[in-house]
Design goal:
With 618 residues, the chain is α/β, with parallel strands linked by helices. It has two domains: 335 residues, Up-down Bundle (ABC transporter transmembrane region fold); 141 residues, 3-Layer(aba) Sandwich (Rossmann fold), CATH 3.40.50. The protein contains 19 helices and ten strands. The strands form two sheets. A six-stranded mixed β-sheet has the order 6-7-8-3-9-10, sandwiched between helices. It is elongated, with a radius of gyration of 35 Å.
């Protein structure tokens, strides 16, 4: 079985220290950036070979034209030539034209197929790799930046692999062939021309490096504008509520103007490069042609040889001109390839173990332990989000994490799901350290209902099915009913096939919450994580969902984050966090009696609730 491009890339990827990915920086000018495409091209050796064969044949056929033209002038138009001789020479030119047409079309198809295939593989590899990154990656990398690399950068690569590279190689073969024929025809003269052309190469390389630098900078500025647009469009209600449309438009204008200025510098440098190459090569080749014309006048050569020389000169000049254009494209694609390979070489801070432990799924929940866990976020390494936190939740128990904002409650959830790894301490699930488990095995055992539920741009049915894609329709409907989502879904004209819009914009917050709960119920994990799962519900919906969650909590371990203590009074144990430390642990009555932080929070909330529910005197 052939190796896939992604597998090949994984085998050849540069070793990068584990941890937070390093932001892209300015790269040293080098055309070697295109070598990053080799793992994606190598699996298609046959197609590359066919494209190369047709490319050489097309170039060789083109080089036959000047010789056929020489024969036409010297033989078909000679003093003793007949009409049949002339027809035969034109017939040869026609067959050369047919061969050129066939080989050129075959080359175009083979190269275009290769460009489309390599670009598709590259885009798929980048996307799949980004999906495997830990949240630490997205703390410093904007989504718009990733999208820019998936779109504009891969389009540049497609242009080069599917067109420019083939055109450049074809013209290189034609140019070298024409040069060889010219040297063979008039060695001394063309050696002088070659010497002049060699002098042209040095400034071309210097200018080319500048073009590549500016190409990389231009692509980075385009990514900046994409990131701004992505961020603002995802938050359009907030932008409009603060009447910030003009400010955001101005911010985008500034970013796009900067992108334009950088692009113009690139275009200017590339224009100078192309103009210099064309002028220098034309001057050198016209000098050679002038010398050839003098030789015809002196009688030392024939008109056919001069015609042949003229066409070869034109082929050589056009080849150099095209190579100048292609060189600019290659430099832009080198910058794009470096950005993509840089993304592919980024390694997640969360590393899979080579020999994962095998853990059987418990039917009575999961036993959870945190042992002296200390954790710092990579982007906030000056303060511990959790500091020497230890607690245990037995199988089948419902525990709650309470405390003020920023106490570390959400950090516990992130560590349980291995979005991050703690710097110190250990997390154990059913007697097995989660670091020794496969990420897939670990996360299949955990169901999450976040405070801000994620709804995908598809139907209600597909959103619930996301929890367990292999579930039957009956199981999906049962999960929706358990979360009390069926009562509003069945009222919609399209029912479960109703499209919910991007991020669920067509439904209310409470409806989004219940669909997310149905998704978690369908997954049926032994450990359920609820992050303020009822925070967006009205009183009626909250009562129904709370009842559904109580049924869902049976025979599984549940860990709840709650700010409203009334919803977790029955939790055993209640875990009170403050400033990343576990300061209290126990049941409601015992914690109230301790008169600590929990007692203060409970007193404040229950007094407010009592004042709100009691009738006011008139």
């Amino acid at each position: 079985m052939p190796t896939t491009p992604i597998q090949t890339l994984d085998q050849e990827a540069t070793s990068i220290p584990e941890g937070v990915p390093t932001p892209a920086g300015p790269a040293k000018p080098s055309a070697s950036g295109l070598l990053g495409l080799m793992p994606f091209i190598r699996p298609y050796r046959l197609q590359v070979g066919l494209a190369g064969l047709f490319l050489v044949l097309a170039a060789a056929t083109t080089l036959m034209f000047p010789y056929a033209l020489k024969q036409l002038i010297d033989q078909g138009l000679g003093a003793h030539a007949s009409q049949d001789d002339l027809a035969w020479e034109f017939f040869q030119l026609f067959w050369v034209s047919c061969a050129l047409a066939f080989f050129s079309s075959a080359r175009f198809y083979a190269v275009s197929w290769l460009g489309e295939r390599v670009t598709t593989d590259l885009r798929q590899a980048v996307y799949a790799h980004v999906l495997q990154q830990s949240p630490a990656f997205f703390e410093i990398t904007q989504t718009g930046e990733v999208l820019s690399r998936l779109s504009s950068d891969t389009t540049l690569v497609q242009t080069v692999v599917g067109s420019s590279l083939s055109m450049g190689l074809r013209n290189l073969v034609m140019g070298v062939g024409a040069l060889i024929m010219l040297v063979w025809t008039n060695p001394w003269l063309m050696l002088q021309v070659i010497a002049v052309l060699t002098v042209v190469v040095v400034p071309s390389v210097v200018l080319g490096r500048r073009v590549r630098q500016l190409s990389r900078a231009s692509q980075d500025r385009v990514a900046d504008t994409s990131a701004i647009a992505q961020e603002v469009l995802n938050a359009i209600p907030v932008v409009q509520s603060y009447t910030a449309e003009a400010r955001e438009a101005e911010r985008y204008i500034q970013a796009s103007t900067q992108s334009f200025k950088t692009a113009i510098r690139r275009v200017r440098a590339r224009s100078v490069l192309v103009g210099f190459i064309m002028t220098a090569t034309s001057a050198a080749l016209l000098w050679g042609l002038y010398k050839g014309a003098l030789a015809v006048i002196e009688g030392s050569t024939t008109a056919g040889v001069l015609g042949q020389t003229l066409v070869y000169v034109l082929l050589l000049a056009s080849a150099f001109a095209v190579l100048g254009e292609v060189y600019g494209d290659l430099l832009r694609a080198a910058g794009a390839t470096e950005r993509l390979v840089e993304l592919l070489n980024t390694r997640s801070a969360v590393v899979e173990v080579s020999s994962p432990a095998i853990v059987k799924k418990s039917l009575a929940g999961a036993h959870l332990e945190l042992k002296q866990v200390t954790f710092y976020y990579p982007s906030r390494a000056d303060k511990a989000a959790l500091n020497q936190v230890s607690f245990s939740v037995p199988s089948g128990h419902n525990a709650a994490l309470v405390g003020p904002s920023g106490a570390g409650k959400t950090s516990v959830f992130s560590l349980l799901l291995r979005f991050y790894d703690p710097q110190d301490g250990e997390i154990v699930l059913d007697g097995v350290p989660i670091k020794s488990m496969r990420l897939q095995d670990l996360r299949e055992r955990i169901g999450l209902v976040p405070q801000d539920p994620v709804i995908f741009s598809t139907s209600a049915y597909e959103n619930i099915l996301y929890g367990r894609p292999q579930a039957s329709k009956a199981e999906v409907l049962a999960a929706a009913k358990a979360a009390f989502a069926d009562e509003f879904i069945e009222q919609w004209p399209a029912g479960y096939d109703t499209f919910l819009g991007e991020r669920g914009v067509r439904i209310s917050g409470g409806q989004r919450q219940r669909i997310a709960i149905a998704r978690a119920i369908l997954k049926n994990p032994p450990l359920l994580l609820l992050d303020e799962a009822t925070s967006a519900l009205d009183a009626h919906s909250e009562r129904m969902v709370q009842a559904a969650l109580e049924r869902a909590m049976l025979d599984r371990t549940t860990l709840v984050i709650a700010h409203r203590l009334a919803t977790v009074k029955k939790a055993k144990p209640l875990l009170v966090l403050e400033n990343g430390q576990l300061i209290e642990e126990g049941v409601h009555e015992a914690l109230v009696a301790q008169n600590g932080l929990y007692a203060k929070l409970a007193k404040l909330q229950f007094q407010e609730l009592q004042a709100f529910t009691q009738p006011q005197a008139v």
